[in-house]
């Protein structure tokens, strides 16, 4: 499991949860973050950054949580 996910699971009190459940929860959170970035870009195009930057942000979030 990604070290950061482990730290967040401990912080959230998920000590007794199985690793698979925690990883699935992390994937859902990352998907939601990615969707929020993409939705913001679609709904606010004049303020949106170049597409390459958006994809870089998406990849960074995914890598950070180890759920690419």
Keywords for this entry:
mainly alpha; 74% helix
List the helices and strands and how they pair.
Blueprint (H helix, E strand, L loop, with lengths): L2 H10 L6 H25 L7 H15 L3
Helix pairs in contact: 2-3
Largest sheet: none
| Average pLDDT reading | 80
**Beta-strand percent range:** under 5%
Radius of gyration: 14 Å
Task: Explain this structure.
The longest helix has 25 residues, at 19-43. The chain has one domain. The mean pLDDT is 80. The protein has helices spanning 3-12, 19-43, 51-65. The radius of gyration is 14 Å and the shape is elongated. Helices cover 74% and strands 0% of the residues. The protein is mainly α. The protein is built from 3 helices and no strands.
In short:
With 68 residues, the chain is mainly α. It contains 3 helices and no strands. It is 74% helix and 0% strand.
